[in-house]
Write a structure and sequence with these properties.
Length: 381
């Protein structure tokens, strides 16, 4: 097999340069793939053929790529489609409508992604980093720290793999086509900015260049990296920005979201409103409801004042506690009062559907269990 170049990467949080995977066709746009194929001594149109299999038919098996000459099929597919994700565990719950995958990467790092089927759509939640450097204390991934950024193809491959699961009809009662992708898995997407934006472009480009999803069906979550939010607004993309706020006041947010010590609530919200004004997209305000921490009525009122009249929607998230954590979910009466006060302030508010609790549904829990060599709780398919 041809020796492949490694993708240039930034040093991780400890100053090391972690080994990245071999180049994959999803790391490149279509002209880049064509140039890569010609370097291998093949005609440029072979790149389009392999891309059609991967993005259009969701096929990885060279044996199914019968439009390629048998003599070059294995070599070409193996070079353009190196294995990036090796399944470690795949668990299902909610009568099969929620499926969580734990992957081992080429260097042993673990990442997670989740497929969620609904009557009108199929959504995939994907990871952008192995671990996370944002250190939010109530988050299992934040407690683990950052291992490295994922490559563009490692990000995209999660969505393509789970799109294939949906296409197989495995998610009963849901359409057979992936329609939505949310960057809400492991990691801070905007801390891996260039690869995340490249991954979005692959997801929305029509086949054979990409998956052909709607930009409006892509959501990018962030804890509030202000310069990156402003940069994203200039990318000519219509993706939804989801801001993980979790507290309306700086005193508490400094503790819950440590990056707030760099960019305060007012600065983060100003960047979010500028994003909304530039893109015309409503900002989703993510707010994990944590018992006796951020769920007081006065905080609901303060949040309502900050968001009133803005192009924003609040998504309240019942906390899925991590094992041994001191954090717990707010009681339902407290949650309902929080919702009432926000809506009374004129702020659109919903409570996120709770999915996957019996399969270590909170991001990072399954990877943490694997790292500890502990069997996660069993789940029924």
């Amino acid at each position: 097999m041809t020796s492949l170049p490694l993708i240039p990467v930034d040093p991780d949080a400890r100053g090391r340069r972690p080994a990245m995977p071999p180049r994959h066709l999803a790391d490149l746009d279509l002209p880049g793939r064509q140039a890569f194929v010609t370097e291998l001594g093949e005609p440029a149109f072979r790149a389009k053929q392999v891309s059609n299999h991967y993005f259009g038919r969701l096929v990885r098996d060279p044996g199914q790529m019968t439009d390629l000459p048998a003599a070059t099929r294995e070599r070409l597919a193996g070079t353009l489609l190196p294995t990036l994700l090796t399944p470690v565990r795949e668990l299902a719950c909610d009568d099969g409508a929620t499926r969580k995958a734990l992957w081992r990467l080429h260097d042993g790092s673990l990442v997670e992604s989740v497929l969620m089927g609904y009557p009108d759509r199929v959504t995939v939640c994907i990871s952008s980093q192995a671990g996370c450097g944002m250190a939010c204390p109530f988050c299992a991934t934040g407690q683990a720290g950052l291992t490295r950024n994922l490559s563009t193809a490692e990000i995209v491959d999660q969505a393509v793999y789970l799109a294939g699961v949906a296409a197989s009809g495995a998610v009963a009662g849901s359409p057979p086509r992936l329609s939505h992708v949310v960057f809400m898995g492991m990691g801070e997407p905007l801390a891996n900015y260039s690869r995340v934006v490249a991954a979005i472009r692959r997801l929305v480009a029509p086949a054979p260049e990409g998956l052909g999803l709607s930009q409006r069906h892509i959501t990018v979550s962030t804890v509030g990296l202000v310069p990156a939010i402003r940069r994203l607004a200039s990318e000519d993309l219509s993706v939804t920005l989801a801001l993980s706020l979790h507290a309306p006041d700086d005193e508490l947010r400094d503790e819950l979201v440590p990056v707030n010590q760099r960019w305060k609530v007012s600065e983060v919200l100003d960047a979010a409103w500028d994003y909304a004004a530039t893109t015309g997209r409503r900002v989703s305000i993510e707010y994990a409801m944590i018992k006796d921490v951020n769920d007081q009525p006065w905080r609901a009122d303060l949040l309502g004042r900050l968001l009133a009249g803005k192009l924003a929607h609040v998504n309240l998230i019942p906390l899925n506690p991590t094992p041994g954590s001191r954090w717990d979910a707010s009681p339902k009466p407290v949650e309902r009062e929080f919702v009432r006060r926000l809506r009374e302030a004129g702020v659109s508010t919903t409570v996120r559907d709770t999915r996957g609790r019996e399969i270590d549904g909170a991001c990072g829990q399954l990877a943490a269990a694997e790292d500890r060599d502990i069997e996660p709780r069993t789940a029924t398919a």
